[in-house]
Write a structure and sequence with these properties.
It contains eleven helices and eight strands. The protein is of the alpha/beta class. An eight-stranded parallel beta barrel has the order 1-2-3-4-5-6-7-8, surrounded by seven helices. Helix 4 crosses helix 5, helix 6 packs parallel to helix 8 and helix 8 packs parallel to helix 9. The longest helix has 20 residues. The radius of gyration is 20 Å and the shape is globular. The termini are far apart. Bound molecules: erythose-4-phosphate. The site of erythose-4-phosphate has 12 residues, from strand 6 and helix 7.
């Protein structure tokens, strides 16, 4: 069970990393576009100084040659950069070449069902990213998709690890892990939500008040 931070915003990544529960980072072109303006390579290099584990960087070219060229650039930035390739026919060819010929780790992304994940794994994917929120938005059972993919990994003895992304709430995080995801990548806003419970806050305050009152009475030193 691992948590990645799903962000290209260095302040968010820094805040998430300070909690001590994050072991990687995923970015995508939309997250990169919505983060603070600036040189994207520098931003990824900053993220690499804050996060100890893998950092996913996604290609945008839609041709095999273009994907391979972008991937070579991103992979050259740091050994911990994992290239994100979206699920499509050109992507499959790129995945196979990157993983099996160029030994570049690939996070296959934008996937909505276990058939796509199976194809990605047969092409050699290191990570398979299932978009839980978008799957659910369409009325499909994201938990079943994760569980099916986990079964495929076992039956095919694939090396791939499942990343559950597209998180909409803490329930998505919980259910994704229970369904068999190895990793959940979450936006920063869900981290405080994972921690907060009103009864916990009340209990902490109750204990502090009791102690403060005892101190005021001189009952405790
Ligand atoms: C993670 O790798 C995905 O790119 C991300 O979680 C997608 O989230 P969204 O469906 O909210 O855009």
């Amino acid at each position: 069970m691992e948590l990645f931070i799903d962000s290209a915003d260095i302040d968010e990544v820094r805040k998430a990393a300070s909690l001590g529960v994050i072991t990687g980072c995923t970015t995508n072109p939309k997250l990169a576009a919505s983060a603070e303006p600036g040189d994207f390579r520098k931003r990824v290099e900053e993220i690499l100084t804050v996060v100890d584990g893998p950092v996913s960087v996604e290609v945008v070219d839609e041709t095999v040659a273009g994907m391979l060229s972008e991937s070579a650039e991103y992979a050259s930035w740091d050994p911990r950069v994992v290239v994100k390739i979206p699920m499509c026919l050109a992507g499959l060819e790129a995945i196979h070449k990157l993983e099996n010929e160029r030994h570049v780790r690939v996070n296959v992304t934008c996937m909505m069902n276990s058939n796509q994940a199976a194809m990605a794994m047969m092409a050699g994917a290191t990570y398979v990213s299932l978009f839980v929120g978008r799957i659910t938005d369409m009325g499909y059972d994201a938990d079943a998709t994760i569980a099916e993919t986990a079964q495929f990994i076992e039956r095919g003895a694939f090396k791939a690890r499942i990343i559950a992304g597209s998180m909409r709430g803490v329930g998505d995080i919980q259910r994704s892990f229970l369904a068999g995801a190895h990793i959940v990548t979450t936006p920063y806003k869900l981290l405080p939500a994972m921690v907060h419970h009103p009864r916990t806050v009340e209990t902490i305050q109750e204990f502090k008040s009791a102690w403060d009152e005892a101190r005021q009475r001189g009952d405790v030193g």
